[in-house]
């Protein structure tokens, strides 16, 4: 059986990258941060992360350099910036 995600990834490489990122999100950011955040978009090498409260937006901002490094290590994606939002 073919998964819908794999079909979407073939059609749009950005979707494929986002699916890989989501599948490893808890490994990349840790269980606690993953419980309060979700990667929702990648545009021009900038990652948009949906957060469930302003406190987690602030936390993502503080962790941005580390998150970019972990993303590079885990899925070989060079993120230039991270935008956290509600």
What structural class is derived from the secondary structure elements? alpha+beta
CATH architecture annotation:
2-Layer Sandwich
What is the overall silhouette?
A: globular
CATH superfamily label: DnaA, N-terminal domain
Instruction: Please tell me the total number of domains.
Output: 1
Give the strand order, joined by hyphens, for the main sheet. 1-2-3
Q: Number of DSSP strands? A: 3
Strand content: 15-25%
Percentage of helical residues? 55-70%
CATH topology: GMP Synthetase, Chain A, domain 3
Distance between the termini: 35 Å
What value does the average pLDDT take? 90
Strand count, sense and barrel status of the largest sheet are: 3 strands, mixed
Low-confidence stretches: none
Order of helices and strands: HHHHEEHE
Which value, in Å, is the CA radius of gyration?
13 Å
Helix segment tally: 5
CATH domain class name:
Alpha Beta
Describe the SSE topology.
Blueprint: H1 4-11, H2 13-23, H3 25-29, H4 31-36, E1 37-43, E2 46-51, H5 54-75, E3 81-85
Parallel strand pairs: 2-3
Antiparallel strand pairs: 1-2
Helix pairs in contact: 1-2
Explain this structure.
- With 86 residues, this protein is of the alpha+beta class.
- It has one domain (4-85): GMP Synthetase, Chain A, domain 3, CATH 3.30.300.
- It contains five helices and three strands.
- It has helices at 4-11, 13-23, 25-29, 31-36, 54-75; strands at residues 37-43, 46-51, 81-85.
- Strands 1-2-3 form a three-stranded mixed beta sheet.
């Amino acid at each position: 059986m073919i998964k819908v995600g794999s079909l979407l990834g073939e059609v749009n490489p950005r979707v494929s990258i986002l699916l890989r990122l989501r599948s490893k999100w808890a490994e990349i950011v840790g269980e606690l941060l993953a419980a309060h955040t979700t990667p929702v978009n990648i545009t021009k090498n900038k990652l948009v992360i949906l957060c469930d409260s302003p406190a987690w937006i602030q936390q993502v901002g503080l962790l941005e350099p580390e998150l970019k490094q972990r993303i590079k290590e885990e899925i070989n994606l060079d993120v230039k910036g991270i935008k956290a939002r509600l």
